[in-house]
Write a structure and sequence with these properties.
The chain contains 13 helices and 8 strands. It is an alpha/beta fold.
C-alpha cells in the first residue's frame, strides 16, 4: 500500500512509515487478528502504531493484562465467551465483506508462516557466532511451544530449510490443549478438536490454549516434526520459578513448554531417539535449544503472581 501510494520506494528505510503522513493514510484501513497470545499483542500494537484501525479478537481465556495493554494502545479488543477457534472464525466473518481490512490468519496464512520462518535464518547466524556446529554428526534439537501451530510450524519449516536433516523439531503442548498432536496423530487435522476427546482446553498457558489446530500447518509439517509431548500447568509453573531462580530469566507459562524437552528425549523410553535416528554418540554431541516465546511484556504484578505460584509448587 505504501509503495503503490508513493509513501515508500524500493530501497527506502521503512522507518519512514513512522510519520504523520503515513498514519493519516493508513487510518483509512483496518487490520484484524484472532489470538489468545502474543500474536495478538504484536499485530495489534504495531498496527495501531502505524495508524491502522486495529482489532484483536480474543477468547475468554486470554489474559486480562494483554487485553488491557492492547486497549491502552488504542486497539479494539473483541472478546468471546468461547475458545480461540470461535474468536478466529468470528474475526474472519466480520472482515470478509470489508475490502479495506486485512485479517492476519494464524491458522491459514502462508505469509505469516513464512514470516515466522525468518527466525531460523537469524538463529543460524547466532549459532555460528557462538561457535555451535550443526550438521548430521552434531544435530540440533529444538523444542517449540505449540498453540494453533502457525508460529512453531513456520519456525520449524525455516529450520529445516537452514539445517536439513541435522535439525530435529519437537512440539510442546499443554496437557489440556494438545490440539496439534491430536490433529496430526488422527490425520483429521482441523476436523478434530481436543473437546472431542473430553479435554477442556483450560490451561495457564494462555498462548497455547487452542482446541483446534491449523490444518494448513499440520498437513505441511506432519512429516517434518520429530515428536510431540505434553506438559501440565504445575510443571510449567515449577519451571518458571526455577528458571528465574537459577538464570534470572522471567518467562510466562506458555514459554516454559519447551523446557522439559531435553529431559523427555534423553530420559524417556517412548522412541523419540529411535525415530530421529540418534544413537548415543550423536546425541552426546547434540545441541538442545528451547524456544522461549514470551514474558518480556508481562506486567510486574502479574509476573510476581506467576513466580509465587511456581515457588509454591516447588518441592521444599
Amino acid at each position: 500500500m505504501a509503495l503503490s501510494h508513493g509513501l515508500l520506494r524500493e530501497g527506502d528505510d521503512y522507518a519512514g512509515l513512522d510519520s504523520d503522513e503515513a498514519r493519516a493514510f493508513f487510518s483509512g484501513y483496518r487490520v484484524a487478528v484472532g489470538s489468545t497470545g502474543n500474536l495478538g499483542l504484536s499485530i495489534g500494537i504495531i498496527s495501531a502504531k502505524l495508524g491502522f484501525q486495529a482489532s484483536v479478537h480474543m477468547s475468554a481465556d486470554a489474559r486480562q493484562w494483554k487485553k488491557d495493554l492492547l486497549r491502552s494502545h488504542g486497539v479494539n479488543v473483541v472478546e468471546y465467551p468461547s475458545d480461540y477457534s470461535v474468536a478466529v472464525a468470528e474475526g474472519r466473518k466480520q472482515v470478509a465483506s470489508d475490502p479495506r481490512c486485512h485479517f492476519v490468519d494464524d491458522e491459514n496464512s502462508k505469509n505469516l508462516f513464512l514470516g515466522y520462518a525468518v527466525a531460523a535464518e537469524r538463529l543460524r547466524g547466532q549459532l555460528a557466532e557462538q561457535g555451535v556446529r550443526v550438521d548430521v554428526e552434531h544435530p540440533l534439537l529444538v523444542y517449540l511451544p505449540c498453540g494453533v501451530g502457525g508460529g512453531p510450524g513456520g519456525v520449524a519449516f525455516g529450520l529445516k530449510l537452514a539445517f536439513g536433516d541435522a535439525v530435529h523439531c519437537l512440539f510442546a503442548e499443554p496437557t489440556h490443549a494438545p490440539c496439534m498432536l491430536l490433529g496430526v496423530y488422527t490425520g483429521l487435522h482441523e476436523a478434530v478438536a481436543v473437546q472431542d476427546f473430553g479435554i477442556d482446553n483450560l490451561t495457564a498457558a494462555d498462548g497455547l490454549a487452542v482446541g483446534r489446530p491449523s490444518g494448513f500447518v499440520g498437513r505441511a509439517m506432519q512429516r517434518l516434526i520429530d515428536g510431540y509431548y505434553t506438559v501440565d500447568d504445575g510443571e510449567l509453573y515449577r519451571l518458571l520459578a526455577l528458571l528465574e531462580r537459577e538464570q534470572g530469566l522471567k518467562l510466562e507459562p506458555s514459554a516454559l513448554a519447551g523446557m522439559p524437552g531435553p529431559l523427555r528425549v534423553l530420559g524417556e523410553s517412548q522412541g523419540y531417539r529411535q525415530r530421529m535416528g540418534l544413537n548415543a554418540e550423536r546425541l552426546a554431541r547434540a545441541a538442545h535449544l528451547v524456544w522461549g516465546t514470551g514474558g518480556g511484556m508481562v506486567p510486574p504484578a502479574e509476573m510476581d503472581a506467576y513466580l509465587a505460584e511456581g515457588r509454591r509448587r516447588l518441592p521444599a
